[in-house]
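Input record, target 12 of the design panel.
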C-alpha cells in the first residue's frame, strides 16, 4: 500500500490504523459491467448532455442505480438527470 515506506512513525501508525478500520467496513465492488454504464449514458445523450457528464461521475452513479444505493456527493451538478439516481448532497464544510 505504500504505508510501510512512510518515514514518520506517527504518520505511519495513523495510516495503518485507518487501513485496519477500512478493512472492517463493507465494500462495494465496483464492477465495470457495460450494462451499468450503457443505459444511463444513453439516456443522458438523449437529454443533450452527451459531452457534459464524465465517466468518472457516471461510473459510481450507475453502480448506485444498479444496486439501489444512494450516492453521497458534495456536488450534485454532475449527477443531475441521471435516471434512477437519488443523490444525497452533503453540506460543504
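The sequence produced for target 12 reads:
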Amino acid at each position: 500500500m505504500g504505508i510501510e515506506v512512510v518515514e514518520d512513525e506517527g504518520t505511519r501508525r495513523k495510516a495503518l490504523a485507518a487501513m485496519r478500520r477500512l478493512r472492517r467496513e463493507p465494500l462495494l465492488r465496483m464492477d465495470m459491467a457495460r450494462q451499468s454504464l450503457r443505459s444511463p449514458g444513453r439516456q443522458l445523450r438523449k437529454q443533450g448532455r452527451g459531452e457534459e457528464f464524465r465517466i468518472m461521475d457516471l461510473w459510481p452513479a450507475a453502480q448506485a442505480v444498479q444496486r439501489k444505493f444512494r450516492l453521497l456527493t458534495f456536488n450534485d451538478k454532475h449527477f443531475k438527470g441521471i435516471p434512477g439516481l437519488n443523490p444525497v448532497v452533503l453540506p460543504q464544510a
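The radius of gyration is 17 Å.
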